[in-house]
Design goal:
By secondary structure, the protein is of the alpha/beta class. Helix 2 packs across helix 8, helix 4 runs parallel beside helix 8 and helix 6 crosses helix 8. It is built from 8 helices and 8 strands; from the N terminus they run H-H-H-E-E-E-H-E-H-E-E-H-E-H-E-H. The radius of gyration is 18 Å and the shape is globular.
Amino acid sequence: MFMRTLLLAIIVQFCTPQNSMAQLATEIERHESFISTFTGAVDGEHSQRLGPRSSRAERQAAADFLEERLHELGLDVKRHEYAHPNIHPVLDLFLPPMRGVNIYVEIKATRHSDHYVIVGAHYDTAEGSPGADDNASGVSTLLTVAERISNQSSRSINYIFVFFDQEEDDLGPGSKTFAQYLLDRDLTIHSMHNVDMIGYDGNENRTLEVEVPDNLRPAYLRAANDWAMELRFVRFNSSDHIPFRDLGIDAICLGEEVSSGDLNPHYHSAQDIVDHIDFEFLARGSLLVGDVLASLEAPS
C-alpha cells in the first residue's frame, strides 16, 4: 500500500502544477487511509465491524464510525432516523417499514445567510460488497471537503453534509426522507451536490460524468480545468440527487463514466475493494468538488 501511494505521488509530479502537487499527494494519502479502514481492508480497532454495509447491523456500524470520524473533525454530528413505507402499501400489512439513519453535519455561514448548499453521498453498499468505489469514494470525498469548508475563515452560505443510508434500495428511502425533512424545515436550498462513485478510471482519460444545471456548469468547468479533469454532461437516472431534483432544486450528481462505458467492473461485487481504486483520479475529483463548493455564494 505504501509503495502504491509513493508511485502515485511520483506520477503526480509530471501531471500537476508545482503548487498543487503537495495538496494532491496529501489528498491521495487521506483517501487511501480512510477507504482502507471503512471497507475493513486493514487490521485495526474498527476492522471487525467494518466492511460490507448492507444489513441493518452493518449499516449501523458504518453510521457509528462516520459519526466518530466527524466528531474527530470537530463537527457537530446529527442523526436523521427514518421509517419509510415499503414499495407497495399491501406489503406494509405484513412487513415492517424500512428503517435507517442519515448522518449529517451543518456548517453555518460566517455571516448571515438563509441559503443552504446540500452535499451528499450514500454510505451503504450492495450485499456482500465492501463498496470501496460504491460508495466509499463519495463518502471519503465528503469528509475531506467538509473539513476544508469548516476551516474556511469566511463562508457566505450554509452547508449541510449528509451521508445517506439505503441508496442501494430501489426506493432510496434515505435521501427521500431527508429531502422531505429539509422541506419541512422550510430551508432555502441553493443547490444539492451528490457524489456517487468517483474512484475508477479504467480508460485513464480523467473524465467524470456530471448532471448539473446550466447556471452551475461554469463553476464545475473551472474546477475541472484546474485539476486537469474532463467533464461529460449527462443525466443520471438513479442516485440520491433525484428526490431533490424532483422537488425543483438545482441538483447535481457527479460520478465516473457510467453512460460512456467506463463503469467500474467490480461494481456491486465482493471485488469492489481498495486495490481497485485509482486514488489519483479520486483525489483530483474530490479536490474539484471542494473547489466548486468553496466558490458558491448566496444570491445577493
